[in-house]
Design goal:
Number of domains: 2
Family: Belongs to the ABC transporter superfamily.
GO molecular function, one term: ATP binding
Bound molecules: adenosine-5'-diphosphate, magnesium ion
Radius of gyration: 19 Å
Keywords: ATP-binding, Cell inner membrane, Cell membrane, Membrane, Nucleotide-binding, Translocase, Transport
Structural class: alpha/beta
CATH architecture of the largest domain: 3-Layer(aba) Sandwich
Order of helices and strands: EEEHEEHEHHHEHEHEEHHHH
CATH topology of the largest domain: Rossmann fold
Strand order of the largest sheet: 6-7-8-3-9-10
CATH superfamily of the largest domain: P-loop containing nucleotide triphosphate hydrolases
Number of helices: 11
Helix content: 25-40%
CATH class of the largest domain: Alpha Beta
Largest sheet: 6 strands, mixed
Pfam families: ABC_tran (PF00005), oligo_HPY (PF08352)
InterPro entries: AAA+_ATPase, ABC_Ni/Peptide_Import, ABC_transporter-like_ATP-bd, ABC_transporter-like_CS, Oligopep_ABC_C, P-loop_NTPase
Number of strands: 10
Amino acid sequence: MSVLSIENLSIDYRAETTVHAVREVSLTLERGEILGLAGESGCGKSTLAYAITRLLKPPAAITGGRVVFSSREGYDIDLSSLAGDDLRAFRWDKIAMVFQGAMNSLNPVLRISEQLEDVFITHRPELSKADRRARCADLLERVGVDRDRLRAYPHELSGGMRQRVMIAMALALEPQVLIMDEPTTALDVVVQREILREITRLRSELGFAVVFITHDLPLLLEISDRIAVMRAGLIVELDDALTLYTKPKHPYTKRLLSSFPSLTGERGGFVRTGEIALEETDQTVEA
Ligand SMILES: Nc1ncnc2c1ncn2[C@@H]1O[C@H](COP(=O)(O)OP(=O)(O)O)[C@@H](O)[C@H]1O
Ligand SMILES: [Mg+2]
């Protein structure tokens, strides 16, 4: 059962010269899965993410195709049909997103509690103040931040903590899809790992599907169910993570894999948690 279908989507930037940033991309996101989107800088990943969340701005223009959301309640929505309040509600409620610099978009003069509560005040006005407070505290704990941090101002939190707050906000209304565009790229490796573990756990708990975008292929191999490899606006390969890693088909995928020493080094430093034994990875990696 898919929750999102991208059908032949094409997006151009109409500047002095036209850039075909996304070219007839077709993808489905299954309910509850983590779909990784890999590819070098400039290949069109963010453009695709912005299209899915209807955040594209001129000079970007969708020149063909469509994105359809299939709600768990059983109805389909062509995203291009949404506008105004419907679009805003849809964006928090059904599809939420976390971007790389998200943690810097917290308002510096408001406490974390106020910023989290705002989401509920806007989108769940029927909640009582007490219920709202309780939900905010629960949300924070869900993403691994102590509830007394509710009283903190953003500058009192580390970058990792602030990014967790952003993830909490994205999850506030229990969306069915979470789009994450380089959400941990600015963070150090240990914090990055912790947050990723949190996301995979939350996905099991809450059942949302994730499109996880990064140029960091080793990281994607670790957390994704399936991976799409994008190059120059095209999806050149799409497969489950293990197959993509052990039996890449497209020359570009092979090249991308071999560009990460941790994946190809003699000791096969990378292990997809619990699924590939070290010995196996050593043998299957192409030289
Ligand atoms: N505002 C813009 N105007 C013109 N071209 C753009 C604009 N934003 C992005 N592009 C171009 O679109 C392509 C895809 O960019 P982007 O989606 O940001 O790639 P990625 O996220 O994979 O790094 C690139 O060639 C980039 O130069
Ligand atoms: Mg990008």
